[in-house]
Amino acid sequence: MRFVLPVVLIACGPRVDDTAAAFGPYPEPSALPEVVDPQDPLTHADGQPVAGPLDWHGARAPELRQLFAHYVYGVSPAPPPVAVSVVSERQGALDGAATATELSIGYGDAPPIALLVFTPPGAGPFPVFLGLNKCGNHAVSDDPGVSLPTAWNEPDCDSSEAGRASRADYWSIRDAIAAGFAVATFHQSDVDPDDRADVAHADGVQPHFPPPPDPSSGWATIAAWSWGLSRAVDALATLPTVDASRIVVFGHSRRGKAALWAGACDPRIAMVWAHQSGTAGAALSRSFEGESIGALTTLFPHWLLPRFAEFAGEELRLPLDQHLLLALIAPRPLLVTDGADDAWADPAGAEQAVGLAAPVWPFLDPSAAPPEWRLRPGDHEVLPEDWATALAFASSR
Ligand code: GCU
After folding, report:
1. What is the reported pTM?
2. Cβ atoms of 253 and 278 closer than 8 Å
3. Could you tell me if 297 and 309 are in contact, meaning their C-beta atoms sit under 8 angstroms apart?
């Protein structure tokens, strides 16, 4: 079976033709004023209050997406046409609990994304949790039929049969299936290897697409992952067993950062769950707790724009903060989760960010449930109890 989707005018990141000129100018970081309090989401950059939902969607939200694209994540290309083909479909996967479908997502001349989808038995359509995985699709479960990864892999991942189920502890797929959700995932390296040596992004999807008009705003690894999540949304929309109006994008830690930027950019994503996403994720940079911008951009220079690194030690000059990223998901459901012992991810900074973003939900839709931040005991990992929290949250929305 093969589907070819038309180009949809939804970009993971601002449109390439919707350039800085629309909202700028954007001063160099060192020329920005120090601002102690995080910016009010419901006030435009020029100090005018946001007049209502139309003003939010038409002006404030694009203004904020441009700010994040320019200073933090980079500008992603417009969505390309994708060619989705079903590689295999197996009933009785996961010891009879699910159907496993493997899809190949082709776009441009980039290597295809291999998307794995487990669906509950039956016709559906089922809501779905979609997330990136670190080590390959074979690593997320003990299902023996899932194909091995072909892209570059991390030193602590094993692309061979020996790596099967090696990350299954983090993936409560059987619990999700039992709760009536499908689970979809792809290997992050299919889009951009998490290789800190590759600051020029030569090994990812970036060289396969035209560079942005302003090369200093080229898209970095987190943005590429987010954009890949949108390509997976393109593919899920072709599956009759998946309810494309109920796609939850989730991620742990660096993949949580990508999930949030994907949710901010792609309105087809119906809910976001960011777990322990920390700095450049759900945690405020102005909280000055946990990982600093300097620590992040030194250890992981490929994740974000070099321009973001200029805010190291200069956090007060940021013309934005992460609560504004969360606000871009409003009025859709948003769940932010943390672990009490995971100080590096700055749980208190994420709690503050959720609180500062929350007024945007009733502003846009008086009936919308506000975003939630939940803390559990424990450290930096994904536990079955985290999945239980997210599944219950998604089921109630
Ligand atoms: C490092 C990094 C964090 C990131 C985390 C992860 O700790 O400093 O920013 O969230 O890795 O992805 O597990």
Report:
1. 0.95
2. yes
3. yes
396 is catalytic: no
Distance CA 218, CA 205 (A): 12
- Non-local (6+) Cβ contacts of 90 within 8 A are 99, 100, 101, 145
Please give the helix or strand (H or E) that residue 114 lies within, else none.
strand 110-119
> Where along the chain do its domains lie?
123-395
Q: Which residues, 6 or more positions from 88, have their beta carbon under 8 angstroms from its beta carbon?
A: 100, 101, 102, 145, 147
123-395 domain in CATH 3.40.50.1820?
yes
Tens-place pLDDT, residues 319-374: 999 999 999 999 999 999 999 999 999 999 999 999 999 999 999 999 999 999 99
Q: Is residue 125 reached through a cis peptide bond, with omega within 30 degrees of 0 on the bond before it? A: yes
CB 240 within 8 A of CB 45: no
Q: In what order do the strands lie in the sheet with 242-252?
A: 2-4, 82-92, 98-107, 110-119, 182-187, 126-133, 242-252, 271-275, 334-339, 372-376
197-230: per-residue pLDDT in tens? 988 888 999 999 987 778 788 899 999 999 999 9
Q: Which atom of ligand 1 is nearest to the CA of 253?
A: 10
The catalytic position among 217, 253, 285, 287 is 253
Tokens of 366: 């008086």
Helices (H), the chain: 53-55, 61-68, 93-96, 173-178, 221-236, 254-265, 293-299, 306-309, 322-327, 347-357, 360-364, 384-396
Q: Is the Cα torsion angle 276, 279, 282, 285 positive or negative in sign?
A: positive
Phi, psi of 42 (to 5 degrees): -95, 20
Q: Is 279 in the pocket of ligand 1 (CB under 6 A)?
A: yes
User: Ligand 1 centroid vs 98 CA: distance in angstroms?
Assistant: 32
Over range 382-391, report the average pLDDT: 98
Active site residue 226: no
Rg (C-alpha) for the chain, rounded Å, is 20
pLDDT one-digit tens code per residue, 299-322: 999 999 999 999 999 999 999 999
